[in-house]
Structures are given as C-alpha cells and as structure tokens.
Amino acid sequence: MVLFGPSGSGKSLTLRAVAGLLRPDAGVIRIDGRVLFDSRAGIDVPVRQRRVGFVFQDYALFPHLTVRQNAAFGVRGLFGGMTRQMRSRVDEVLELFGLSRLAGSLPRELSGGQRQRVALSRAVVPGPGVLLLDEPFSALDLPLRSRLREEVKGLLDQLGIPLILVTHDPEEAVRFAQVAVPYRKGATGEIIDCGETPEEGPDERGQSPWPGFHGAADRLVRCTFDTAEV
C-alpha cells in the first residue's frame, strides 16, 4: 500500500499511529484483523507488541552501534543478549541486504544507500507483520535513489512482508503501489485498487486514478475505485 500526497497532508502521522508512536484521538487501527487501537474499547497495544517494522525518513540509526548491533536492536534482550536463533536471523538478514562485510562498521563510515539498508535490516530482523516506510529514498541523490528503489523493491518482494510506503514522489508511488490512498490537506481520498496487471489510461469516468500527479503517474493502470474510510 502507498500513502501519497503533498508534504504536510498527514501521511507520516498515519504511519506513526499504526506503529503506536502517536495515539489517535479516536478511531480503530487493525492489521490483518488484529485490533491495535480502539478508542471506544480502550485498546492501545504497546509498540513492541504490535509486530510493526518502521523505517524512518532519516533512518534513525544509533551512531555508537555497529551495523550488526543496529540490525539486532529489536531482538536483543534486556541486557543486550541474543539467542542463537536470533543471531542466526541477524546474519541471514545482513547477508540478504549485502551488509555482512560491513557488520563491524559504524553508521558514520557508511554511504547513504548502506545506511538505508541497515535501517531496513533493523526493521526486518524481528519478523514484523507489516513494514512501514516513511519516504525512505528522499535523502538520496537521484541516480542512487532510482537504483536503490529497484533493489529494495526486489528484496521486499523476496521477503514477502506487507508494506505501507509514504511518498510524495510519483515514481515511487507508481513502482510500489498495488493499493494507494491519496492524501490532501489532512484528509484521505478514495482508496485506489491498482490491481496486478496495469493498463494505461484513465478510468471509465475519464478521471486520473492519481489526482494531482502527472508524468510518471499518467502511465498507471486503469484502476477501480472503492469509497472507504482510512
């Protein structure tokens, strides 16, 4: 799923509410049928129990921890210990993201793309039920952004973790979206189901499925529309 729209429209606030970093005034948050928040029922599942991975826009790596220690942060015990199974899991994810040879490096010794992969690794290691990405490519220069976008898409497809991506970049929206939710001025529009086999052009009403976007978005599939609350 992609949440797209201009800056300041509430996309990142939505991610933070899903992750439990922000408490909504009212409403219900469900993931795969599991209620994480319900204001009327008094349900507010703690962050560590939500099984949600979060990659922040600035990556938020711990500068004093190595690549391995950053990646393992979500599965370390109270005193920093890990089971053999978790150590194996960390090694597996570092290998998948091409970070094994950098396991002993600090964030300041890494490139922007490498730091991004460390942040993704940290989010993936605990085995989240959903992965939240808050404009993960915005800090990268254009050539690197395009390359890493494809690399990350391939890795996430391989892992099979459901994804919610926040962006105001139409290229990213086009690349990642199967379902899209447009945001504008703090409100959501119609949920857009883009299906799996795109066809170019507007829908039968002659409307662009991605209002406010041009260029790359014009290549999107003919989408079906469902009115829904988000």
Automatic annotation (TrEMBL):
InterPro entries: AAA+_ATPase, ABC_SmlMolc_Importer, ABC_transporter-like_ATP-bd, ABC_transporter-like_CS, ABC_transpr_FbpC, P-loop_NTPase. Residues 2-210 form the ABC transporter domain. Gene3D superfamilies: P-loop containing nucleotide triphosphate hydrolases. One of its GO terms (cellular component) is membrane. It holds the Pfam family ABC_tran. GO terms for molecular function: ABC-type ferric iron transporter activity; ATP binding; ATP hydrolysis activity. Keywords: ATP-binding, Cell membrane, Ion transport, Iron, Iron transport, Membrane, Nucleotide-binding, Transport. This is Molybdenum transport atp-binding protein modc.
